[in-house]
Amino acid sequence: MGCFHASIVIVLLGFLMLVSVPTEAATKKYQFDVVVSNVSRLCHSKPVVTVNGRFPGPTIYAREGDRLIVNVTNYAHGGSYTYHFNVTGQRGTLWWHAHILWLRATVHGAIVIMPGQGVPYPFPEPYQETELILGESWRTDAER
C-alpha cells in the first residue's frame, strides 16, 4: 500500500506542476527598414526618415510578458541593430521614436501593450481600439 500511495502522490505532484506552469509568452518579431522618403502632409512634400516607407512608423503590438525582437536596418545611414526586450510592468499605448543625432522631430510610432493572456484589463475591456498619433512639427524645420 505504501508504494501505491507514493505513486499517487508523485502523479498528483506531476499533474499540479504541469497545470501550474504559466502559459509561455509569445516572441514577436518586427523588421524596421529605415529610409528617407518624400512624404506629403498638409499640402507639403519633404524628405523625412520613414520606417517601412511609413510616417508615422508601424505600430508594435504586444502583451505583458511577451518578448520583442525588432531588427532595424538603417538604409539611410547604413548599419543595422537588433533590439531584444521583454515587456514587463507596462500596459497601455506608449510610443517609440528614433534618436538621430541632429533631428529634434523624427520617425515615431505606437506600442500597444495589452494585458497578458488570462489577465483582465484594469477597466472594462474596450469594444474597439484605434491608435491616434499626433505630431506638431510638420511645417517646421526639424533640422534647426
UniProtKB/TrEMBL annotation:
<dbReference type="InterPro" id="IPR011707">
    <property type="entry name" value="Cu-oxidase-like_N"/>
</dbReference>
<feature type="domain" description="Plastocyanin-like">
    <location>
        <begin position="78"/>
        <end position="115"/>
    </location>
</feature>
<feature type="signal peptide">
    <location>
        <begin position="1"/>
        <end position="25"/>
    </location>
</feature>
<dbReference type="Pfam" id="PF07732">
    <property type="entry name" value="Cu-oxidase_3"/>
</dbReference>
<dbReference type="GO" id="GO:0005507">
    <property type="term" value="F:copper ion binding"/>
</dbReference>
<comment type="similarity">
    <text>Belongs to the multicopper oxidase family.</text>
</comment>
<feature type="domain" description="Plastocyanin-like">
    <location>
        <begin position="36"/>
        <end position="76"/>
    </location>
</feature>
<dbReference type="InterPro" id="IPR045087">
    <property type="entry name" value="Cu-oxidase_fam"/>
</dbReference>
<protein>
    <recommendedName>
        <fullName>Plastocyanin-like domain-containing protein</fullName>
    </recommendedName>
</protein>
<keyword id="KW-0732">Signal</keyword>
<dbReference type="InterPro" id="IPR008972">
    <property type="entry name" value="Cupredoxin"/>
</dbReference>
<dbReference type="GO" id="GO:0016491">
    <property type="term" value="F:oxidoreductase activity"/>
</dbReference>
